[in-house]
Amino acid sequence: MPEVSPSNPPPNTTPPLQTPKRNWKKILLFLLIGLFLISLVGVGLYLLVPKPTEESTPTTQPQKQATPSAPKDETADWKTFTGKTRESDPAFTPTKTIRFSFRYPADFRLLGDVGGIIVSNDPTRKNGFDPLVTPGSLSVFARTSTDAEKPSSPTETSLGGRKAIRGTKSSGKIVTATYYVSSVATEEGDSVPFALLCQYILKEGVDTAETCDLMALTFKFLD
Fold this sequence. Notes:
The chain is an alpha+beta fold. The chain has a domain at 79-221: Protein Transport Mog1p, Chain A, CATH 3.40.1000. The chain has helices spanning 24-48, 208-218; strands at 79-84, 99-104, 109-112, 117-120, 138-144, 155-159, 162-171, 174-185, 191-201, 220-221. The strands form 2 sheets. It has a 7-stranded antiparallel sheet with strand order 3-4-5-9-8-7-6, covered by helices on one side. The radius of gyration is 55 Å and the shape is rod-shaped. It starts with 23 loop residues before the first helix and ends with a strand.
């Protein structure tokens, strides 16, 4: 057996290591399978997880402001008197002509225009000289007046656009509400007091005073 000298080492007989070749087809196949599985899981989660329902936000409609209705005209169906004071009886004072108009309820009747205008809803009255006897009934006089009819303890008001005073007094069952104007020009060229007088007999549930006030509100002097 030959000697091996350190200077002459034996030849290396170990075969060289070979680097394994990568199989790209398998790698690509695994990647595709992985992507498919991930996609499959994602689709499953999307289908299984409940979606939040979108609540429709109610559209807020602007609230319409209630339009206040026009106040009811309580005199809409009333009659209208248009005329003048006149005297046709020598027993009365000389004529003092004042033209005016006013409205009165439809159930009232014109009883006369001698010495003034008289309207009433008392069924027992046939003319301006008959007494007022029915409770809740009302008679209204529009005529020239005197200082004696000027109300005591009055309240200020207006009549036909003129400054006036209003007062009431009682005589037995009859109440008289007087709307008094101290000076109104006449067609004869002078001035005299003028009064709208409401006479009524009180009755429970009948607001006769309110009817008087409404009639006074419709009164107009016709210059």
